[in-house]
Each structure stands twice: as structure tokens, then as C-alpha cells.
Amino acid sequence: MTEQTPVLRLEGIVKTFPGVRALDDVSFSVMPGEVHALMGENGAGKSTLMKVLGGIHAPDSGQIFIGEEPVVMTSPMQAKASGVVFIHQELSLADELSVAENIFLGELPLKGFGRVDWKKLHADTDAILKTLNVGFDSTKRVGDLSIANQQMVEIGRALTVNPRAVIFDEPTASLTDAEKVVLFDVIADLQSRGVGIVYISHRMEEIFRITDRISVLRDGQYRGTLTTAETDEEEVTQLMIGRKLDLSRNESHHEMGDVALEVRGLSCGALYQDVNFSVRRGEVLGFYGLVGAGRTEIAETIFGLRTPSAGQILLDSQEVHISSPIDALRHGISLVPENRKSQGLVLGMNCRDNMTLPQVDDLTAGPFVSDGAEIAIFDQYRDKLDIRTPGWRQIVGNLSGGNQQKIVIGKWLSMRPEVLIVDEPTRGIDVGSKSEIHNLIRDLAAQGYAVIVISSEMPEVLHVSDRIVAMYSGRVMREFTSEEVTEDNLIQAISGIAAEKVA
Amino acid sequence: MAQFNKSDIGALLAKQGILIAFAVFMIGFTLANPRFIELDNVSGVIRSSAILGVMALGVTFVVIGGNLDLSVGSMMSFSTIVVLDLHDKLGPGLAIVAMFALTLALGAFIGFLVGYLKLNSLIVTLGMLSAIHGLTLTWSGGKNMDIADKSGTWFAFFGQARVMGVPVPILIFALLAVLLSLLLAKTPFGRKVYAVGGNGQAATFSGIPRARVVFMTYLLSAFCVATAGLLQASRSMGSQNTVGQGMELEVLAAVILGGASLLGGSGTVVKTVIGVLILGFIQSGLLLVGLDFYVQYIVTWIIIILAVWLDVAAKRGRLWSPIA
Fold first, then answer.
1. Which of A116, A492, B169, B225 has the highest count of CB atoms within 10 angstroms of its CB?
2. A457 pLDDT tier (thresholds 50, 70, 90)
3. Ranges of residues in chain B whose predicted pLDDT is under 70
4. What are the CA-CA distances from residue B118 to residues A186, B67, B214 (Å)?
5. Contact B202 A328 (CB under 8 A)
6. Residues linked to residue A168 through DSSP beta bridges, in sequence order
């Protein structure tokens, strides 16, 4: 691809927000028929760059070229008209409408008196669906499709124009392995038609499977472009975070104390049944299983958000009844919830207020909240967790994902819990922050906290846990120590294959 | 060199639009009629805004908590009628206590429905607007309520007296504003109101009793309404059943004008006070330039729309955007 003109070229893009230089002279180009990965930690500037490209943000300086023509993107509509289309991570479809209506939403073919030309609409849609090789037709209601098929509809929408470049933003976030294969086929097909693909993802495995080149952003700056065939994960990671990453097995050993939390025969209706486990002070207990295996529901029960239908919860060998998060906090249980944006943080509030929220009643001087006491706590945990923020007044919604997660962890750590439950500690967080949070979890255990980590990522569970509980369909299938666990027997346990043997 | 282009102006208007519009109004009115900014008129405006203002203080808490209160106008009519009626039956002291108790009971009822039963606040308070109006008419039998012996009671103090030259309604408004501002900005309760309105689920996960916090905001709003009813009754010493009719919208306009988001989680007492004053000055200005009183209703609507638009615009940093 030496003498070809790129289908899409961004040159010297600069974008500043108050106090932040989000993009600092970023250049980037995509060749026809190329799959070009765009990588970087959260907050590195990927989203901002794509928003500039999509006409949502106007750049302070720099230029965008489609082919050889300079264009000024003023709106997503205009971006689409010039052949640049986006497939977003979060789908934007109307559930109640048919596949055809969704694909041609806003540009339905018309005949006289403003009536929709249904015949043409369905014919055109079926033609597009055919190129996507999907197993549903244009009349299907979108709400009835699987997530993967909904994504195909979204891609179909992109094909109503003749796209020059298609940008995929974390497209595989909610797809199964089989569904991914279908998506990759579609991408390969686009590729063969000379469309340029920008592929944004944190998942190395995919990047190395389908991309031709990889460009990396760090702190809003362009860090370089690698040819995928000539590089490896380590080099990419290093470029992204500026250092090496440790993702080995957990091999650290330290003294463990008494059993802090024990659960006996805990059940909650159809969600999970007869769950038994215990966790000691100084120990990290990992919960591994598929989404829907009941892990989060167990955590929510221990935290007082659900009422168990049977079983006991014991703290320091004493049975306790926890019927609300307030009870849980009183008993020294903290939960870092699964979804930090909807459950963990008040995004419009500042860092300090978010962190001290559960204990604001105790931080008073007279009738008023004590500024000093709050700032002291914030400062302490900002330093301890290395939270990077301009100051406590910063609105949490403006922080990167990793720093937001640290605020949530800080919030629960500052309650000085006996038992800390962390649900999906690194979901949606870039690799650099990920390993920091893993180290943090290990440190907390070493300091004597009893920690429960729930995760859907096997390397994460293997890396942080002393023991691992494998769950399948609401039941504990097996418990592993870190010595006996292997990837194979762990996978067998969580997919129910080992069910007969254990039972 | 800093270039002044269209999008800068858009962003500036989006951020400071209300104050800019207010300044334009003030200058325009003053040019049209210089009496507008004389001390007399200014203190008159503040005094006549006090009743609305007291109600807006309470509604500020409800709105920051993520809910609406459209019942305050009709609740204020109720308070006014009840206290005037009981004045001649129980004497002023007991009448005031009884009226506060009844109004707070109404607030508690709404708070129970919205907070604990988690019913939509728009529907609940819109329904209560009508129900309380019915309650008021039932209480009074539809008749106007008057205090028989207007000169033989100390009841007139709240609405008509002056302390050190300052009208008492202004003092009460100011005092409440200071107290509630401290409550909202400085206490754990205030923090919880912001959290519940900003992200109710996260508040629950943080061990904040969401239902109780919402309940308290409605109780607080009812307390402010009762105070407003007292000021109104004491000023006029007699009243129709419809005295507070339509005020719910003016109150909401003042709160939004002050910059509280209807989505909850943002706003302050001070900003609401500014919103109340802006509304008051604009209404007074319209009268002074010789427009009919009735024009106010239209202008209030325009102001609400303008304020909501600018609220949305401020969030995305420009006046218009292709994406929501």
C-alpha cells in the first residue's frame, strides 16, 4: 500500500477542553482495504479523536481528508454523507421498529403524498442483509433480535451509503465467540471492497487477529504506528502505558488470619442455591463464572440489597442479618459494585463528595459537614490509590475510567471495612490502570483485609486470587486453591462440564 | 490572537444566557421607564416576590432530589384559607400551628407516595394540585375567607409589619433562604439530596435511605408552602380560594431560571433566589412599561422555555446540537 491515497487522513488534530489538552497534534490515516487498530488507555484521546472525526467536536486546529479532499465535519449526518460511518459500542436502535425501518431510519424511500414505499424499503434492506449474510429478514422487530444481530442491523445502517471508512468502537464488548466470528467476516468483506476500517478495542487477541496496523495514543499524543504482523502484545502495551505489564499468576504469599466472612447454604430463589464459602483476613477469594451465574447476586445479598430465601451469613463466626446496605456498612462490609457509572458514582458530583458519601453523617462538626475531615480522607486515599485528578473539586464524570474506579474503591476502602467485595474491578478499564488495580487488591489483602473479587476475566481471577470459587448457573461447582487451578479445569467448572464429577 | 467566532458566542450565551438576558431586560426597562430602578420599586419587587420566593426555596430541594412539585400553588391556597378560617375560631396562635400541621400532613402524604411507593412525582403532584384545590373548596364551602376583626389581632404582623424599616416578609424570606442554603450546602442531609437526585441507584449502593430523603424534601417543601400561606393570609387578611392558583409554574420557572436541572442533582438555594428576583423584576418591568398584567402569564411561559433550553445548551456547550 505504498502509493495509494488513504481513504481517511487526519492531520495535526488539536483539541483542548478547559484545563485539558485532549488531543495534541494527532495524525492518523487509513488505507483502502486496511483494518487499522486505534489503541490507547482510557483517557488517551481515542473517543475525542472519533468525536472530532464524527463532527461532534470541532478541532482547534488540524485537518481531515477524505481521499484527497479536505473536509470540515460539522455533524454526524455530514460525516455519514461524506462516507465516514460509526458502529458504536452502545447500539442506537429503535426496538419497536422493524429491521428495515431501523436501517433506513430518517431516509425511508417515499412515493406520492409522503407515503412510505414499503416494497422498495424491504427490497433494499434485504439486499443489504444479503451482503451481511445474516439469518433474519427485513420485517423482523429489532427488539426481538440478539445483541449480535442488532449489531448487524447497525452495520447494515452504515451500508446504506457507500462507506469510505467504517469506525468500529469496541464492537465485541457484548458478543460471544461465535458471534465475533460473524462480525469478523463482515469486516473482512468490507475490507475486500476497499473500505478502510478503524477498529477500536482493548482486546489484544482480536487486534492481532484482524488488524493490519496498530496506532497508539497516549495522553492525547500520537505515539506511533506498528505493523501488526511485526509486533507483539508486549510492544503494543509498552507503547500504550509507557512501561511493562505484569499479568502473571498470583504467587505472593503472606500470613492469613481468621475467617472473616462465612456463608452457609445461602440461596436466593432461582438466582442461586446452596452456596457455601468463607474468606479469611488477608485472603483474596475469586469468584469466576459466566455472566448470569449468580455471582453478583450473591454479593448483593451479602450487601443487603437482596433478601436470601435460605442460609446464613456469619461474620467472625457470628450469624448476622443484613437487610439493607446501611446494615452491611455497620457490619463492616463494603461492595464496589459492578457498574461504576450507574451504581458506583454520582457523576455530576465532585471527587471528594463521591468518596465520602457513605460516611458523610460521621464527618460533621456541629450540624455541618466538616470540610477538613472530608478533604483529609480524600487526600489520604488519593495518595494511597494514586488517583490522578487536578483536585477534589474535579467533577467525577470528567475523570478517566481507571481513575473513576479508584474513586469508587477509595470510597469503600475509606469505610475501613472488614470484608471488601469488588465486583468486576477492571471492567472497561485500560490495561495500565488494570494492573494498578490488581496490585492494589493484592496489597489490600496483604494489609489484612478479607477481599472477594468477582470477575469474568480469567487472567484477572488467576492473577489476584488465593482461592477461586467457580460458579455455574447459580451453583458453586468447585473451589480451587491457586496451586491446583489450571485454565482448563476452571473453564470446565464454569461451563458445567465437571458437574457430574463434583456432584 | 483569540478569534471571536460564532461558536464562542453560542457557548457564552449557553453558559451565561440567563444573566445576559436579565441585563438586557433591566437596561431596556430602565430606558423605557426610569422609575424601574428607583429604590421604591426595587424594594416593592422584592417584597412582592417574597411569597413566591419562600415557596421556591422548598421546591428547590424537591427538584435537586430529582422530582417535581406542581402542587405548591394549590397547597398555598389551602394554607391561606385554613389559617384565615381558624383565626376567628381558635385565635391566631393556634390557627397558625394547626395550619402548619395540616399542610405538613399533605406534604408527608406526597412524600410517602413519591418516596416510599416510588410513584412518578409529576403525576402525583399534578393530581394533588387538583385534589388539594377540592379540599380547599370543601373546607371553605367555596366562599371567600375573611378575618372579621382586622385591627384587633397581631396576625397582621407577618405580612404587613416592618422590623428596623424592613418589611417582615422580606426578613422571613431572607432568613429562610440563609437557613435552607446552609442546610443544602453544608449538612449531610443536603449532600444526600444531591446524591439521590444525581444518581439514585448509586445513593442506594452508598447506604443512603433514598425514600426517606425524598420524603423529607416534600416535607420541607410543605413547610415552605405553609410559611408562604401565612405571609399571604397575613398580608391580605382575607382571601379567595384560588389565591395560589398558577403559582406552581412561576415557582418552577424561578427554580429552573436559577439553574437547577429538572433531571435533579444540581442547583443551589442562592441561584433560586436569583431566579426569583429575575422573575419579579421582569414582571414588574412589564407593568411599568405599560403592558397588561395578563401579559405576565405569557412571559412566564416564555421564560420557562428559555430557561430549559439554556439548561440543555449549557450542558453541551452550544445552543443547538444535532445530537441530543
1. B225
2. confident
3. 1-18, 314-324
4. 46, 11, 10
5. no
6. A87, A199
C-alpha cell at A220: 492525547
**Would you state the pLDDT for residue B324?**
45
Among A361, A363, A397, A395, smallest CA distance to A377 is for: A363
Q: Which residues pair with A313 in a beta bridge?
A: A263, A320
CB contact under 8 A, B202 and A345: yes
Distance CA B122, CA B84 (A): 30
From B187, B188, B199, residue closest to A346, measured CB to CB: B199
The nearest CA of chain B is from the CA of A166 a distance in Å of 20
Strand pairing report for A221-227 and A61-66:
unpaired
Task: Please judge whether B206 and A324 are an interchain contact, meaning their C-beta atoms are less than 8 angstroms apart.
Answer: no
Comparing CA positions, the residue from B246, B192, B254, B223 lying closest to residue B66 is B192
In degrees and rounded to multiples of 5, residue A391 shows phi and psi of 165, 175
Q: Could you read off the pLDDT of A145-201 as tens digits, one per residue?
A: 887 888 889 888 888 888 899 999 888 776 777 778 888 988 998 999 899 999 998
CATH numbers and ranges of domains, chain A: 8-241 (3.40.50.300), 246-332+456-503 (3.40.50.300)
Nearest partner of A277 among A293, A295, A251, judged by Cα: A295
Q: Model confidence over A419-444: pLDDT tens digits? A: 999 998 887 777 777 888 888 899 88
Return the DSSP state at B216. H
Task: Calculate what percentage of chain A has a pLDDT beyond 90.
Answer: 41
Half-sphere exposure (Cβ direction) of A317: Cα atoms closer than 13 Å: 2
Spatial separation of the C-alpha atoms in residues B210 and B155, rounded to whole Å: 39
Contact A342 B199 (CB under 8 A): yes
Round to whole Å and give the CA distance between A431 and A8.
28
Residue of B206, B208, B213, B316 for testing the chain A interface, max A β-carbons within 10 Å: B206
Tell me which residues of chain A, numbers 94 to 153, contact chain B at a CB-CB cutoff of 8 Å: none
Q: Beta partners for A481?
A: A467
The total of other beta-carbon atoms located within 10 Å of residue A169's CB is: 18
Q: Which chain B residues are closer than 8 Å to A345 by Cβ?
A: 199, 202
- The candidate with the shortest Cα–Cα distance to A194, out of A15, A434, A30, is A30
Distances in whole angstroms, Cα of residue A20 to Cα of each of A15, A398, B5, B9: 9, 10, 21, 21
- In this prediction, residues A353-375 reach a mean pLDDT of 93
Q: Vertex A340, ends A272 and A494: CA angle to 5°?
A: 35
Is the CB of residue B12 less than 8 Å away from at least one CB of chain A? no
C-beta separation of A215 from A26 below 8 A: no
Cell for B224?
A: 415552605
Cell of B30: 430602565
Q: Is the dihedral of CA B118, B122, B123, B128 positive or negative?
A: positive
Q: Which pLDDT band, with edges at 50, 70 and 90, does A275 fall under?
A: very high
Nearest by Cα to A201 from A428, A401, A456? A428
Kindly report the average pLDDT of chain A as a whole number.
86
Do A368 and B187 count as a contact with CB atoms less than 8 A apart? yes
Coil, helix or strand for A131? helix
**Residue A310 touches chain B, beta carbons under 8 Å:** no
Residue B177 grid coordinates: 433562604
Rg (CA), chain B: 20
A72 vs A63: CA distance, rounded Å = 8
A239 to chain B, closest Cα gap in Å: 33
Q: Dump the DSSP string for B248-272.
A: HHHHHHHHHHTT--TTSS---HHHH
pLDDT in tens, A45-60: 888 898 899 888 888 9
Q: Which helix (H) or strand (E) holds B7?
A: helix B6-32
Separation between Cα atoms, residue B41 and residue B271, nearest integer Å: 22
Q: For residue A282, which amino acid is it?
A: G
